[in-house]
Amino acid sequence: MKAVYISQYGGTDVLTCGDRPEPEIAPGEVMLRVRGSALNRLDIGMRSGRGYQGPLPRIMGCDVAGEVVQISPDADTNLSVGDHVVLDNRVKCAGNCEYCIQGLDQYCPQQKRLGVDLDGGHAEYITAPAINAYKVRDDMSFPEAASLPLACHTAWHCLVTQAQIQPWDEVLIHAASSGVASMGIQIAKMMGCRVITTAGVDWKIEKAREIGADEVINYRETDSISRAVMELTNGKGVDVVFDVVGADVWEESMLSLKPNGRLVITGVTSGARTEMNLSVLQGRPLHLMGSGGRSRRTFGDVMTLVNRGELRGIVSQTFPLEEVAEAHQVMEDREFFGKLVIES
Ligand SMILES: [Zn+2]
User: Does 257 reside within a domain?
Assistant: First the structure.
């Protein structure tokens, strides 16, 4: 079958579009004819070998949507051949580790990621445990479906599970145009929050408002995001900061929070190391939270909202399999809003 894979780590030139063996369905699994797989920062990390060192060759693509073409006879599932589904990226143990037994599968130590530890979705076919496949509405396009699983689940996990946003919260979400942040804006609005976000160019500012942001700070035109936040909140600061950027905004995030505010971080694209002024914490009781694994239950919750039409995938551009390298370049150049999707 046609697939995009890497045999070594490096720049976009290591992405090879060629032939790979079709996967064989294992007990408990479904096979999909892949129709779309979205790019994530995880793909860039995997390709470059920064932070991810799985065995090679590996078919790329962490976010997958497609059509069910085969179901293992012993799979315990309500799915039928022909169903349109998305895949939960994390494949967990058979349910017998100490965490999964307690229903805390987000902490399963044996979890493997599609497109990193297992072959991914930049291919014509993929297999995955039936429990990882969730049905989506037939009228949703495959690129939109593919744009949702990782971005939507990550944003939901950070804002709802971790930071526990409430309707009265004011929330600062950095980098509106990123896939996770653009879903975060929609989720925070849906939950009734007032959403402040950041962007660096006019067309992204406009788009951020279109998807629900109440206020957009142009970070290129302000020397202090936290000062802009204070101006927008009558000097009080925000209840929650959702950070997909990392080092570049860390200090500004701290200074944007109200006393007792919550910060949740899931991305470090601008760098993972920073100096921290500990007196900020001495002066104000802040809650700093990481992201980490996500549960099957919250994946089901968020897909219910997707199927109800409450949350929409934002597809910036689609590419054929042969142009995955170009898509990686667009992602690294950050000239897009939402998600880049590879069609197989
Ligand atoms: Zn487990």
Answer: yes
The angle, 0 to 180 degrees and rounded to 10, between the axes of the packed helices 41-48 and 324-333 is 110
Condensed to tens digits (0 to 9), the pLDDT of residues 237-270 reads 999 999 999 889 999 999 999 999 999 999 888 8
Question: Distance from the CA of 211 to the center of ligand 1, in angstroms?
Answer: 36
Q: What DSSP state is assigned to residue 37? A: E
112 C-alpha to center of ligand 1: Å?
Answer: 10
275 CA distance to ligand 1 middle (Å): 35
Q: What angle do CA 46, 127, 30 make, to 5 degrees?
A: 145
Distance 266 CA to ligand 1 centre (A): 22
How many domains does one find in the chain? 2
Domain of 214 in residue numbering reads as 152-289
Tens digit of each residue's pLDDT (9 = 90 or more) over 37-94: 999 999 999 999 987 777 899 999 999 999 999 999 999 999 999 999 999 999 999 9
Task: Give 133 Cα–ligand 1 centroid separation in angstroms.
Answer: 17
Query: Any bridge partners for residue 217, and if so which?
Result: 198
For residue 330, the CA-to-ligand 1 centroid distance in Å is 36
For residue 146, the CA-to-ligand 1 centroid distance in Å is: 25
Whether residue 294 lies inside any domain: the answer is: no
State whether 7 and 98 are in the same domain: yes
Same structural domain, 176 and 278: yes
Q: How far is the CA of 115 from the centre of ligand 1 (A)?
A: 19
- Interacting residues of 6 by C-beta distance below 8 A, sequence separation 6+: 14, 15, 16, 46, 47, 56, 57, 58, 60
Strands of the sheet with 2-6, listed across from one edge: 16-19, 2-6, 58-59
Q: What is the CA(264)–ligand 1 centre distance, in A?
A: 24
Q: Checking DSSP bridges between strand 2-6 and strand 58-59, what pairing results, if any? A: antiparallel
